[in-house]
Amino acid sequence: MSAEAADRVAAVASSRPSTPLQTSWFEFLLDGSLLEKHLKKANPDPTPVQLIVQFLEQASKPSVNEQNQVQPPVDNRRNRTLKLLALEVAAHMKWDLDVLEKGLTIPVLNMLLNELLCVSKVPPGVKHVDLDLSTLPPTTAMAVVIYNRWAIRTIVLSSFPEKQTKPGPHQMNVLYKTSCLQLKEQANDSISVLEGALQLKKDFYVHTLRTLDLLAADTAANGETESSTAGLCISADELHCQVHYDVGGIFFHQGCTDQTAYQKARDHFRQTKDLLKKLDSTVHVHLDEKRLAGYWNACKALTEDCDSDSQTTAYDQINSLIRAHNYQAVIEAFIRDNVTHSLPNHFRQSVLREFLYKVQQGESGLDEVCHKLCICNAIRDSLEGEVLSVRFQQLLLKPNKWMVDFILEVCTLSLEKEHLSETLRRKIGNFIKTLCENLEELPLLFVVSSHKLFIELLKEEERKVLMEQMRKKSATINLSAKPLPSFYDIPASATVNIGQLEQQLILLLEPRKIRQTLIELHGLAERSYWKVNNKWEVPPDYINVILSIKDNLTKDLVYILMAKGLHCISIKDFAHARQLFTACLKLVTEFSPKLRQVMLNEMLLLEVRAHESMTAEGSKERPPPDLVSRVRGYLEMRIHDVPLRQVVGEECVTFMLNWRENDYLTLQVPPSLVMNNPYIKLGQLLASTCKELPGPKESRRTAKELWEVVVQICSVSIQHKRNSDGRLSLIKHRESSMGILQRYFRSMSHFMLLHSIVRVCSSASPCLQAVDVEAVAVTVTELVSYALTLNSNNQSWLITQADIYFVTNQYSAALNIYLQAGAVCSDFFTKVVPSDVYSDQVLKRMIKCCSMMNCHTQVAVLCQFLREVDYMTAFKALQEQNSHDAMDSFYDYIWDVTILEYLTHIHHKRGETEKRQIAMKAIGQTELNTSNPEEVLQLAAQKRKKRFLQAMAKLYF
What we know:
Blueprint: H1 3-14, H2 25-30, H3 34-39, H4 48-59, E1 63-64, E2 70-71, H5 77-92, H6 97-103, H7 106-119, H8 138-158, H9 170-173, H10 176-185, H11 187-197, E3 204-206, H12 209-217, H13 224-227, E4 232-234, H14 236-254, H15 260-278, H16 289-303, H17 314-323, H18 327-340, H19 345-360, H20 367-383, H21 390-395, H22 401-414, H23 422-438, H24 442-449, H25 452-457, H26 460-473, H27 494-507, H28 511-524, H29 540-547, H30 552-570, H31 574-589, H32 593-616, H33 625-636, H34 646-658, H35 662-668, H36 671-676, H37 678-692, H38 696-713, H39 734-747, H40 753-761, H41 773-790, H42 795-807, H43 811-824, H44 840-852, H45 856-863, H46 871-879, H47 897-910, H48 913-923, H49 934-956
Antiparallel strand pairs: 1-2, 3-4
Helix pairs in contact: 4-5, 5-7, 5-12, 7-8, 8-11, 8-14, 11-14, 14-15, 15-16, 18-20, 19-20, 20-22, 27-28, 28-30, 30-31, 31-32, 32-33, 32-34, 33-34, 34-37, 34-39, 35-37, 37-38, 38-40, 39-41, 41-42, 42-43, 43-44, 43-49, 44-45, 45-46, 46-47, 47-48
Pfam family, one: TPR_INTS8
InterPro entries: INTS8, TPR-like_helical_dom_sf, TPR_INTS8
Subcellular location: Chromosome; Nucleus
């Protein structure tokens, strides 16, 4: 017994509870009879596919000569035996490609089947398409068929996006793309080989454990074993059935670029179906009959084959109707299917997607068809207890009368079934309830609530709740909605007239009609009509002034005109806002100078926002001189007892800054305003700094003063006192000043201003203990995000964005942005990244990101980038065994010999021979020889830096 086997026996004896240890691969080499015994176990450990991987991995290991050079695997008895063992395991599995494909990667299975070709005496160097299968020995011909079946199946399977999760040797995984490319290039040859196999009418034989053992025992058999019938017999019909299925799959795959391929696929699938009916048992046929049925239906639809079956399926009927452009019949078929449930949901959804695609391609007249099919599918979903689709919910956002009528019609027809269960009735009742909750327009709600389904399917309590919701909705209709004439077809009465007029008041936007409606309402009942809609809001600063108006009609009119005008501004309907505000100004001018000034201020804010909106939409037109003059007038205004909204002052200052009225703010504004108006003071500081920015030395004084004010604004404490120079402190206006900062920085084009302020004043920072960190974080986050939408390649802002992610523990996102910052300033790392971008501080944060993501090899590589290599961090990272990066694939990027020597020591200590050899190979590169001139060593480091950063970018971008 070997020493390792003895250790394993001792481990079994000492472990509790006793668990059978996994059989090692080398034990099968020592005992020739062990493999068959192992495979006959109920649950062998390792499993058959795991054994194939282990055998081939060991047989394909490269060797290392005395000069530490990696050599191809040696062709010796050990490796040949391992390959034969892998074939014997596959033979035990009866060469079931379904199982082998699920358990093995493409490179591993490619290697296995090439070994099968080799032992089956397939002539080397001869293309399979040039072989005459009828003249080859049975097992030789079968090996060719199996390989080419796998080739075309792999082309189809590899076309689906799927993460590679199957086990396999590392050196094989890197061959994945190469293998797929080679198979695709040989696809036509593989199809020809299999079509040739379909012409053979004799039985086929495939290798078994027994025939492979015979081959191993008598290597000079010269094909005798292959010519015998000792292998597993597979009838011609069984093989043809499987080959037709596989060839049909590759033709269907090619149909997207060659429409005639669908007809070929259809013919092969027809042959597959016919042979399946003919075969009594299908021991050696491995296909998914549901998938075959799907292929068959798809081919018939794509080739317009209507006479392929004696019976026409529901799928065929729908496809025929679509080809005939009989769309109304398709809708009727969907409605009938809501009762019969003969069509699966995924098919119904695919039909809808097909119509939506037609609409997208510009085919006209199909919008209503799409809407009706979407409604039919939504009701089917409700009947099956599924969640309503997003598309249907979007449809309910813009409903109309015919749509609601059609929904109710389909619901009614979907319930026309004998002995309908109470459960289905309840589900449709819930659907009707959902419909009512989503509809906003009262006339449409009345249509639903008056329908018989509403009364029959909903309980009385539910109906009461819904009716109450409808009543509330009548007072909250959107201001911009248009009144529907049908709503007013109500019997006249005093109560109805008031409700009718109130509804009209909510909807109107014309000042004259609003006034006329209010006069009529006050004639019917004297009450406060400004309360009719709880969505009407005026600023708190003005409420007391408006509500102090004695005449109730005037009070209602002023309140409603202002509220509607403010709403129109919020939705950028500036034309209606101007009409409403102009009428309100004309009204209040007659009796209240205070309200007149309020309206003038609001109209100024309206014009400022209207011009900002034009600028946001791309207009570069400067504001008219009249508007600039009015803004100046507001800032200099001094009228006592006039309520002033804070936002007006903020936006006026921001307006002057955005349009670079710096001379006014710095030279022309009266000193008294600077001392007493915090908005003006902050604006003046910002304007002064902007003017003097080109010369850092000259701007130091103003920038320092601005910096101190910004720190004050961001401070937590509230101080209600004047400074030593008698001026009003900006701290107590913190909220307002923060608003100015945020508005200004989100609007200005020179986003580097704040960075420059920090740079200039970094040596003169005041005490920052009272700074509200959260307020600063919110402001900086918003500022940086907006800045990057305008200049996404500014490395300074990218680094700041990455820092934000870093401090909020979003390490992957932070590393992504750090890499972006380096890429934009180095032409994707083809040049050296400037040291002011990848400073030691930034590099240490990148190291921390990699460490927190368990990418420890990347940590070690980045430690070399520092001015002084951080060996302690690098060594600690390399000691980690649970690394989530590619580990040894990063060794080529290490140029520090000390780190590489430590790597070889670690791998030697752990017994990781392969990884140690990779590390030694990296050390052995002549350009890393410490005796080289410094220029050579620097060039080697720069080359590895560039390749590493490019690899990281591809990994994280």
